[in-house]
Write a structure and sequence with these properties.
The protein has eleven helices and 20 strands. The chain is α/β, with parallel strands linked by helices. Strand 6 (133-137) and strand 7 (140-141) form a beta hairpin. The chain crosses the membrane at residues 7-29. InterPro entries: ClpP/crotonase-like_dom_sf, CtpA/B_N, PDZ, PDZ_sf, Peptidase_S41A, Tail-specific_protease.
Length: 380
């Protein structure tokens, strides 16, 4: 999920009022004939349902259903209509805590897929892995379920349970029951490894990530850091602005990412770093998505570090949140490009050094390779 935290206020006009105001007629007059016909068709359908359906139904319910269907028709799993409850939960996630099982979901090959479990949460403890497919939630098939609807069903009050039918690679589907907990999202952790190698792990990008990363980076510098390993494995992304803050500690002065809209408008976010300070290795895998791909793509394009691991997820789109009365639409409004103008959407980023995880290994072979790499750069 890259979700750019831009909240644009908008008032949802009552449909009938809209039609009889000068503004409503002006909209129809400005539209082409196809727009006019389609708009009139919508209002005719609304009128028919209101007048003829076997039971009375309020306009707000019908309009919400129409908006949900409209956004769903885009065929974009990242564009969704959120009712008041879903919108509230979405905002809580970006702000740092929520009730749930601790996994980030996406849609891959039209199947609900785990982008990554969040460290230390019920999902992580139950052994759920990046790439696992969620086929059912509490017995309900997820095949035609919208992404945010699935997220909403999995989340819930602390102490309650949710049952998931999970398929891992080519293994038989198994049912896992998880007890929801209060998910506190501390996104940054770090420590000093031997030989003054700094290690920082970022689990996702929320409101606090940029500042928390800068603080941890400063602490490691004070301890005499001589090189750094940035671990973005199973990082599903988050807020674009926070990823730029992190990338700006590694990428020399110049572009970090460009956001390009449908009409070709380009907004470029840049780093002001005067010079690269340390040898850098970045760990990535198939669970590294969105904002984490912004960071890793910028580091790779500017040769300010080396990517180690496996190919990233491939989410190169930007969403904004548009308020509609008590709910909202999360809408894909742009694609992002790396400093070399690469679009990685649906493609992913290939690491500079490919290292597959070995399930039978007694150590983290990807981290081992990163340590070996930065040691060579340090001349050790």
């Amino acid at each position: 999920m890259s979700r750019r935290k831009i909240i644009v206020s908008a008032v949802l006009l009552v449909i009938v009022t809209f039609m009889v105001t000068a503004g409503g007629f002006l909209y129809l007059l400005k539209g082409n004939s196809s727009d006019v016909v389609s708009t009139l068709k919508f209002f005719r359908a609304l009128q028919v349902v209101k007048a003829r359906y076997v039971e009375q139904v309020d306009t707000e319910t019908l309009v919400a259903g129409a908006v949900k269907g409209m956004v769903s028709s885009l065929g974009d799993p990242h564009s969704v209509y959120m009712d008041a409850k879903m919108y509230k939960e979405f905002m809580v996630e970006t702000e740092g805590s929520f009730g749930g099982v601790g996994m980030v979901l996406g849609v891959k090959d039209k199947t609900l897929t785990v982008v990554s479990p969040i460290e230390g949460t019920p999902s992580d403890k139950a052994g759920i892995k990046s790439g696992d497919q969620i086929l059912q939630i509490d017995g309900k098939d997820t095949k035609d379920m919208a992404l945010d609807e699935a997220v909403n069903k999995i989340r819930g009050p602390e102490g309650t349970t949710v049952s998931l039918a999970v398929r891992h690679e080519n293994e038989p589907t198994k049912e896992i029951t998880l007890t929801r907990s209060n998910i506190q999202i501390k996104t940054v952790a770090g420590k000093m490894l031997p030989d003054k190698i700094g290690y920082i792990r970022i689990s996702m990008f929320n409101d606090n990530t940029g500042n928390d990363f800068a603080q941890k980076y400063k602490e490691l510098e004070a301890e005499g850091m001589k090189s750094i390993i940035l671990d973005l494995r199973d990082n599903p992304g988050g807020l674009l602005e926070e990823s730029v803050k992190v990338a700006s500690k590694f990428v020399p002065k110049g572009p970090v990412v460009s956001v390009v809209t449908r009409d070709g408008h380009r907004e470029t976010h840049s780093s002001s770093l005067e010079a690269i300070k340390y040898p850098v290795a970045v760990l990535v895998n198939g669970g590294s998505a969105s904002a984490s791909e912004i960071v890793s793509g910028a580091i790779q394009d500017t040769a300010s570090g080396t990517l180690i691991g496996t190919k990233t997820y491939g989410k190169g789109s930007v969403q904004t949140v548009l308020r509609l009365d008590s709910g909202a639409i999360k809408l894909t409004i742009a694609k992002y490009l790396t400093p070399n103008d690469r679009s990685i959407n649906g493609i992913g980023i290939e690491p500079d050094i490919k290292v597959e995880m070995d399930k039978d290994a007694k150590s983290d072979v990807q981290l081992d390779k990163a340590i070996e790499f930065v040691k060579e750069k340090m001349g050790k």
